[in-house]
Structure prediction request, 228 residues.
Amino acid sequence: EAGVAQSPRYKIIEKRQSVAFWCNPISGHATLYWYQQILGQGPKLLIQFQNNGVVDDSQLPKDRFSAERLKGVDSTLKIQPAKLEDSAVYLCASSLVASGRASTDTQYFGPGTRLTVL
Amino acid sequence: GENVEQHPSTLSVQEGDSAVIKCTYSDSASNYFPWYKQELGKRPQLIIDIRSNVGEKKDQRIAVTLNKTAKHFSLHITETQPEDSAVYFCAASTGNQFYFGTGTSLTVIP
Prediction:
């Protein structure tokens, strides 16, 4: 089966600029996750969607980060304006159902977008 | 929210020995505990998971144990091989929230 797709793979911007990342989950997967992984740390969940609704965005810095999944399929994550500390890999993952809800809840990760803020 | 702690942060073992990584969690509502392996520059890959209604699960050389009372779970890798070298992350989920541990860098010395 086709995996989770993300673009771009790499992005370099200067601080205070804006950037957007795109994710296309595995077909049929209702749940979509965006994670931020800073070098040497574990992934931190930024936002979780169930179809086109937000399940959890408690760790999303809402003053500068936004995400949408308007049609319940692909999703975009935006940072505006970027700060130096936003340099990280942004991972998108999807699962058939939300993790912890059923046995079909395995999360599959995309390749990530490596963001460097100068 | 949930707090997942993982130990040790680094672990070196001789090839053929066993490796054990431990995680604790704080939210008693967490009911799903996956383990991921992440090789350098690659995406996390699920290697095994366990649910709150099970105490132990095995898959060949990999096993996971869960103690719900103590709120901790562990990953056991037996007969380690050089290709097991990677960063391993535990995670905990309530169904609505998903938290990763801080990772364990495992090195298997040939």
Observations:
- The mean pLDDT of chain B is 93.
- Chain B has no helices and eleven strands.
- Chain B touches chain A through 24 residues (CB under 8 Å).
- The longest strand of chain B covers residues 86-93.
